[in-house]
Amino acid sequence: MKIMVADDDRDMVDMLSYWLKGHGYDVVRAFDGEQAIKRWRETLPDLVILDIQMPKLDGFEVCRQMRSETNSMVLILTAHDREDDEVRGLEMGADDYLRKPFSPRQLLARIKAVMRRSSNTRGMSGSSAITVGPVTLDAMRHEVVRDGVKVRLTPTESRLLHLLITHTGQVLTTDMIIERVWGYDDAGDSGLVKTHIRHLRQKVEPDPNSPQYIMTVPGVGYTFTAPVSVES
């Protein structure tokens, strides 16, 4: 597995590179936003560990450009007290975030979760397209077709929509979604799910402010209510 570490703190990059290589990962390093984009395009890593505050291009813009071109997983690093950065990073297409300071054990747990997600995504790749009214999910290509128009999904959005559709009529708790989509064994951040649900509604629902398919069950989680048919 190839991981890119992008941070203007060279000590942080050196430490993470040394530790990741010691655990058997290939590491690509970058120290500013422009360099991160260049090296990412050259090496196409499986996972990008991306600091938000970098010179030349900040992490938000780097994430936005990456997400428009590829399905690489993106993990953003944020300051402990900057919740707005976490929300904005997810809105730019990041799959997850990790708050500084963090321990090597926390980072390893995130990386292992990414590997489980990647394995789950490959498991979906052989599935038939799933059609829901005017919406067709193609999990392999990470896209939906809505009213004849292709809409690109992030890998996380694709897994989340696949989970919801394949459990139509069932109420999925937030913890269950976090475990199945993000791969965490412990309780995660409900805001992570809420943000991705909002993004999915913008891409899937005719009117995101009045959803027909992805419904909130207050205090519990979410359910998919539309009838599903699977193409042969």
Keywords:
single chain; 232 residues; alpha/beta; Rossmann fold; Arc Repressor Mutant, subunit A; five-stranded parallel sheet; five-stranded antiparallel sheet; 8 helices; 13 strands
Structural overview:
With 232 residues, the chain is of the alpha/beta class. The protein folds into two domains: 2-119, Rossmann fold; 125-230, Winged helix-like DNA-binding domain superfamily/Winged helix DNA-binding domain (Arc Repressor Mutant, subunit A, Orthogonal Bundle). It is built from eight helices and 13 strands. The chain has helices at 10-22, 33-43, 59-69, 83-91, 104-124, 155-165, 174-182, 190-204, and strands at residues 2-6, 26-30, 47-51, 73-79, 96-100, 130-132, 135-138, 143-146, 149-152, 171-173, 214-217, 221-224, 229-230. A hairpin with a 2-residue loop joins strand 8 (143-146) and strand 9 (149-152). InterPro entries: CheY-like_superfamily, OmpR/PhoB-type_DNA-bd, Sig_transdc_resp-reg_C-effctor, Sig_transdc_resp-reg_receiver, WalR-like, WH-like_DNA-bd_sf. This is DNA-binding response regulator. The modification 4-aspartylphosphate is found at residue 51. Keywords: DNA-binding, Phosphoprotein, Transcription, Transcription regulation, Two-component regulatory system.
CATH topology group of the largest domain = Rossmann fold
Query: In angstroms, what separates the terminal alpha carbons?
Result: 34 Å
SS strand fraction: 15-25%
What best-fitting shape do the alpha-carbon axes yield? globular
Unreliable residue runs: none
**N-to-C SSE series?**
EHEHEHEHEHEEEEHEHHEEE
Q: Any guess at the CATH architecture of the largest domain?
A: 3-Layer(aba) Sandwich
**CATH superfamily name of the largest domain?**
Response regulator
Radius of gyration in whole Å, from Cα? Answer: 18 Å
Main-sheet strand order equals: 2-1-3-4-5
The CATH class of the largest domain turns out to be Alpha Beta
Proportion in helices: 40-55%
Protein name: DNA-binding response regulator
Keywords: DNA-binding, Phosphoprotein, Transcription, Transcription regulation, Two-component regulatory system
Pfam families: Response_reg, Trans_reg_C
InterPro entries: CheY-like_superfamily, OmpR/PhoB-type_DNA-bd, Sig_transdc_resp-reg_C-effctor, Sig_transdc_resp-reg_receiver, WalR-like, WH-like_DNA-bd_sf
